[in-house]
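Why does residue order matter? Because the sequence determines the fold. Keep that principle in mind as you read this record.
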Amino acid sequence: MKITKTVLVGTSALFCSLSQVSAITVLLGDQDNFALGGASNTPPTRTSFGTALTYETNNRITFSGVQKGFDNGNQNRVFGATFTNITNLDLSSPVTLRLALQSTDPDTDSIGFQFNDSTLPSSTPTGSYFPQMLWGQPINDFVSANSTSGALTSGVTLEIDLRTLTSTGLGTNNLAESINSLGYLDVIVQDDTQVDFLELTYNVNTVPEPSVSISCIIAACGLMARRRRK
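Structure:
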């Protein structure tokens, strides 16, 4: 996992009201154009979501108990990953997920977000089971213009603002508040689609460094004193 952070600071000259926003980018996967191999080919998942993925794959007799990692092109397997430690989201800014996919059958595959923990069975299901997600959409709805005869054989990179999801998906159209309150983002892709990487970009509101705040107060006091003398 690779995390990039950029801090932007804005100030008001008179009252020195200081706001600080950090731009965060988190990369899962290697951006290696679907090349197998490497430790980061194993996606991180929350415990309950990982368990749900295991339950789902256990019901696929051909591939019993096997989840799909980054770059894995095998069919009838489910990919899942979780971004964690997401706090203090700036809800007025985009929350953008980029993901690179290629697929042999995008017409029947889908992308989903945010596993519903309350739907996790207490033990391994004996019948058909698929993790219940807060939102989902067929992959072909995103990439139909890039597909050839129903297959994304050359791969495509999608960019999705999680605040403005299409209304034909399941559930809410804005997942930013859910991500902010829960502190994570679950992603599921099924089941004949390869995932090269996931990259999440968002802004967070942060508390200024004490030294910056003190300097700001001193500057504001000096400005006000000069104005009084005038």
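The longest helix spans residues 210-229.
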